[in-house]
């Protein structure tokens, strides 16, 4: 027999998950409606590289946008019901969204994306950032 520490707030926290308890089917009770894909961000001399794991997500269900210095990856992994008895469900389904601040040396029009085997790869090419120059202003 093992002892388990009682946490009185555990069930209270689970009440506020995004799953709709009142209208979902018994099979969908443990299905999350939002999740965050795992992401690696690396950098070399010429570019930043973002790799996002999106297993079982179709290319047409992925959206990559950039706006006002932010890069956003969003989409949906759909739950496909099978005629099998479900014993355990640990994977997440539903919509997802990840946002990143774009560095100053990346122009939004220089971002390229590719998707293969469940891996979204974004290439953010570095550009020269103009050096701030100091200008002397005469006082009149």
TrEMBL record:
Name of protein: Hsp20/alpha crystallin family protein
Source species: Aliikangiella marina
Pfam families for the chain: HSP20 (PF00011)
Family label: Belongs to the small heat shock protein (HSP20) family.
Top-level taxon in the UniProt lineage: Bacteria
Residues covered by the SHSP domain: 30-140
InterPro entries for the chain: A-crystallin/Hsp20_dom, HSP20-like_chaperone, Small_HSP
């Amino acid at each position: 027999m093992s002892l388990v520490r009682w946490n009185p707030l555990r069930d209270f926290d689970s009440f506020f998950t995004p799953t709709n308890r009142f209208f979902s089917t018994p099979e969908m009770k443990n299905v999350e409606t939002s999740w965050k894909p795992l992401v690696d961000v690396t950098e070399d001399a010429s570019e930043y590289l973002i790799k996002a794991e999106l297993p079982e997500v179709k290319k047409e269900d992925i959206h990559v946008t950039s706006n006002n210095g932010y890069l956003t990856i969003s989409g949906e992994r759909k739950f496909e019901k099978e005629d099998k008895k479900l014993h355990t469900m640990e994977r997440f389904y539903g919509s997802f969204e990840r946002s990143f601040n774009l560095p100053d040396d990346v122009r939004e029009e220089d971002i390229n994306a590719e998707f293969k085997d469940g891996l979204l790869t974004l290439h953010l090419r570095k550009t020269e950032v103009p050096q701030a120059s100091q200008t002397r202003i005469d006082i009149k």
